[in-house]
Design goal:
By secondary structure, the chain is α/β, with parallel strands linked by helices. The chain has a domain of 210 residues: Rossmann fold. Helix content is 39%, strand content 9%. The chain contains twelve helices and seven strands. The strands form two sheets. A five-stranded parallel beta sheet has the order 2-1-3-4-5, sandwiched between helices. Strands 6-7 form a two-stranded antiparallel sheet. Helix 5 packs across helix 12 and helix 10 packs parallel to helix 11. The radius of gyration is 19 Å and the shape is globular.
Length: 322
Amino acid sequence: MAHFRTRLALLGSTAALAAGALAPAQFAGAQPAAAADEHQWVALGDSYTAGVIRAAGNTFELPRDGCERTDRSYPQVIDRDLFGLFELTNVSCGAATIENVTDTAQHPIGRHLPPLSEDPDYPFPAVPPQSEAVGPDTDVITVGAGGNTLGFADILMKCPELGGESDGKGTPCKDALGAGIPARLKKVRQEYDRMLTVLHERAPHAKIIAVGYPTIVPKDTSKCSYGDLTQFGTITQGDLDWLRKDVLEPLNKAIDDSTGTQDAAGFVDLYTSSQYHSVCDDSKWVEGFVTLPDQLSFVHPNALGHRNAADHVEEAMLDVIS
């Protein structure tokens, strides 16, 4: 973090940034002198950006729109860290696909996942495509998406069912779904390329920062306890190895490859820095299916994971405006 702090100290007035770091985020609009120098930043993405789970903080928008943005998600953390330097518009939304970012309206689900959970405010009105928040005056765009286009949530629902039926043996999920993964990854690459093109057209001068996904499954899957709902429940060890090597790592590569086709885009790797903080590690940055005592988390980053994401995305943001 020494490199990050050095770069931050070089940007703008040291006194102004120090004062901004202490000021509550809700008072950002009360300092017009700082606002005149702010870079316009739009945060796009799915639940790994929005936060969604209680382990990533509290939802802060009233009335709720069902997107479940939380106050300890990485866009909100960065907004507080870099107060006065960026003006944030956060339209990330839980369960968003790449198409929901690009040009398709979304019907948010909030925390409505029957039969696992019921949301008393469901159904929610549709929210517009996230790209509509981007315009010619946008300076920086961060986007974290792709997992829902891949169908990762559906895979997570199916693998425990199959693992339970096999009594924890073999690779039943790979056997059932493995043949379709290359086509899913191809769809991610195609839609990601199109999304980046649309964002660049809407904001020709903006720098686009694509944010990858963190380590979810450890390299050593013997760390994972079969049947433990604070980890991966009844997903077999063999299927966890398959999810890591053939699904999640290729997903990050597909996103990274797409950014290489766009001059205005860069990729933030969260996978490497989080490799010892998986769902099955003692110091976890991603929760399992549940967070004790009784919170449904369905394999999402907690506040520590978002803090790590904030550190890396902040540095990328400072790089592109320097």
